[in-house]
Every structure is written in C-alpha cells, then in structure tokens.
Amino acid sequence: MLFKLFLAFTLVPVIEIYLLIKVGGHIGAFKTVLLVIATGFAGAYLARLQGMQTMLRVRNSLEQGRMPAEELLDAVLIFAAGLVLLTPGFLTDAMGLLLLFPETRHYVKRYLKRRLEPYIDSRHYTGGRTS
Predict the structure, then answer these.
(1) Would residue 74 count as lying in a domain?
(2) Which among 15, 17, 22, 124 has most CB atoms closer than 10 A?
C-alpha cells in the first residue's frame, strides 16, 4: 500500500515533469503549455459528454427496473478520468483519455470486478448492516 502511494504521489509527478521538459525542449515552452491546456479542455469536454450519456443509461436502467451496476461503474471511471485529465501532464492525460474510451474502459472494469469479487458476495450482502 505504501509503495502504491509512493508511486502515485512521487513517481508519477516526476515522470510528468520529465515529459514536460522533454516536450518543451522539442516544441518550446509556450506550445507545451498550450498543449497541456488544450488536452485539459478536450478531456473535460469528453468526460462531460461521456458522463451525460452514462447518466442517461443509468436512468433508463432504473426505469426498466434493472440495477444499473455496469453504468454506475462506468460513471465512477468517467469521473476518475475527468479528475486525472484536470491534472496537468501528458501521462495523466493519456490515462484519463484511455478511461474515456468505452473499449479500453471495458478492460479496466473487468480488472476491477476481478479485484473486488472477493469482497462482494451478493448472497451475504446486508446493505451495510452488521446484523
């Protein structure tokens, strides 16, 4: 757990700084800043668009009397993508964009389901109650 926190808060920013310096060296500092701002705006727009579509699917599932589990997981991943896209940098933008594409998001959902499966046992679910 500590190692994962180290990666998230130390290694990722170091990689981002390295990439920003490298790209800035090739295309210039001003163009690099514009590129980071442009990807942030584009990502925010795509996250909003995907989020709205997902919320419509959630509503449709609820109207049909189905539990919108897949749609809610999509919504969480799209929200995470939006947060990551707001973080300046090329690596985080790439990760955020991958989460916005349904094809790649499918693989992340499958991975998360496998990881969470031992914790979710519908036969013993008590709705948060311990009784």
Answers:
(1) yes
(2) 15
